[in-house]
């Protein structure tokens, strides 16, 4: 196969995966115009259109979908063959793409990145922060970071740290004004700052004590989609919120926040790094997994 053919096919697969010429170019370290040229040359060679293009979207044609289905396994084999050559290198190298929730980046993953990059000069990391549930294989990521309960069963999961705990927190000024709830059901009489996932799902607060589990759909006039913003709103006295203890700990320590209903807050399995069980691991991912295991111990 000619080199330019392989380049054009790789560009096609990247555009199909991202539904974007710009994002495909970023992945391949090519300009958007170079990706567009590659796709146009491939379409001219095949004599069929592979994408429907508008100013706002890119979608596969029927022919493009068929080509992707036949092509992707072969490209995966090429990728694995090249990655296998890294076993003969003295040091890990290449691009490592990770998709993680913002909370995981702030509390677990972020602090490890500097250490890893300092130790592995030939590795590049692309970190996408996404609170939704993502098919990391379909989106071209090497690994993901989510709560253990969200990880598909066919993935290998490596704990990033100890179990986590969620806490209900409020500012001292709010609690003095509205009182301290003694039971989760009393949250119905409080202002609560709620969290909505990127998928649109509104999180219901979960509680457990002595084997009794409760799920409360709390009231609230303010709904946000980022834990950092939620913490700031609570510090400002806008209500109570359910947040991860690790994220709230600095504000609990300096007195800006107070935890309530702590006897209803049981630990649960925390964040894990996960990756496909069947796919050949790149040298960069293998090194990152080893680092996670060492630092989580």
Structure overview:
The chain is an alpha/beta fold and 297 residues long. The chain folds into three domains: 3-85, Orthogonal Bundle (Arc Repressor Mutant, subunit A), CATH 1.10.10.10; 91-162 and 270-296, Periplasmic binding protein-like II (D-Maltodextrin-Binding Protein, domain 2, 3-Layer(aba) Sandwich); 166-264, D-Maltodextrin-Binding Protein, domain 2 (3-Layer(aba) Sandwich). 40% of the residues lie in helices and 22% in strands. The protein has helices at 3-18, 21-28, 32-46, 62-84, 102-119, 172-178, 227-235, 245-253, 283-296; strands at 51-53, 58-60, 94-100, 123-129, 143-147, 155-159, 166-170, 192-195, 205-209, 212-216, 222-224, 240-244, 258-260, 271-276. The chain has a five-stranded mixed β-sheet with strand order 4-3-5-14-6, covered by helices on one side. A five-stranded mixed β-sheet has the order 11-8-12-7-13. The protein is elongated, with a radius of gyration of 23 Å. The model has no long low-confidence stretch (mean pLDDT 88).
């Amino acid at each position: 196969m000619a080199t330019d053919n392989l380049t054009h096919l790789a560009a096609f697969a990247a555009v199909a995966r991202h539904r974007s010429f710009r994002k495909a170019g970023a992945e391949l370290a090519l300009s958007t115009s170079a990706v567009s040229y590659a796709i146009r040359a491939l379409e001219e060679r095949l004599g069929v259109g592979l994408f429907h293009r508008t100013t706002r979207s890119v979608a596969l044609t029927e022919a493009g979908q068929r080509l992707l289905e036949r092509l992707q396994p072969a490209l995966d084999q090429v990728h694995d063959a090249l990655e296998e050559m890294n076993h003969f290198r003295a040091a890990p190298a290449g691009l490592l793409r990770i998709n993680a929730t913002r909370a995981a980046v702030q509390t677990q993953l972020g602090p490890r990145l500097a250490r890893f990059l300092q130790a592995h000069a030939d590795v590049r990391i692309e970190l996408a922060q996404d609170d939704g549930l993502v098919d990391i294989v379909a989106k071209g990521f090497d690994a993901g970071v989510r709560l253990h309960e969200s990880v598909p069963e066919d993935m290998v999961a490596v704990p990033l740290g100890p179990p986590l705990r969620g806490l209900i927190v409020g500012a001292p000024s709010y609690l003095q004004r509205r009182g301290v709830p003694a039971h989760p059901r009393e949250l119905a009489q409080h202002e609560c700052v709620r969290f909505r996932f990127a998928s649109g799902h509104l999180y219901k607060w979960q509680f457990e004590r002595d084997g009794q589990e409760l799920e409360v759909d709390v009231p609230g006039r303010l709904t946000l989609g980022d834990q950092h913003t939620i913490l700031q709103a609570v510090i400002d006295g806008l209500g109570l919120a359910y947040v991860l203890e690790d994220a709230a700990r600095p504000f609990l320590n300096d007195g800006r926040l107070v935890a309530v209903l702590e006897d209803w807050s049981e630990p649960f399995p925390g964040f894990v790094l996960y990756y496909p069980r069947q796919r050949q691991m790149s040298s960069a991912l293998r090194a990152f997994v080893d680092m996670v295991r060492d630092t989580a111990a």
